[in-house]
Amino acid sequence: MGERLFTPEQANAALPRVRPLVEQLVERRADLLAVRARRAELAAHVAGNGGLRPEQQAALDRAARAAGEGLREAVAALTALGVVVKDVDAGLVDFPALLDGERVFLCWQLGEDAVAFWHGLEEGFAGRKPLAG
User: Strand 92-99 and strand 84-87: pairing?
Assistant: First the structure.
């Protein structure tokens, strides 16, 4: 089965399903970064002859697993919809498309109201151009 191609209308119609998944993606990524920071704090504390309670490490391990699983689930769900995840931290996703016979990406970032930009396959976010409307 080939890659799904979206029209701008189809990409915008998919946003009610895509937006909560991207929100989950960004939140779980932030959770994972927070766990990593807490682990680093604990490692520094232990290195300074501080004690580490096993339950602290176990809680951090559970939090890291939950965040990682949430990330994987969101990416898998977005991929299943045909959406390409570009930047987890920024909540940036692309919708493969054809515009005037050229393969491009329709670009959407968390916080935007609609899919209103596109860019070439090699241009990325910096090359975004507004969709003609």
Answer: antiparallel
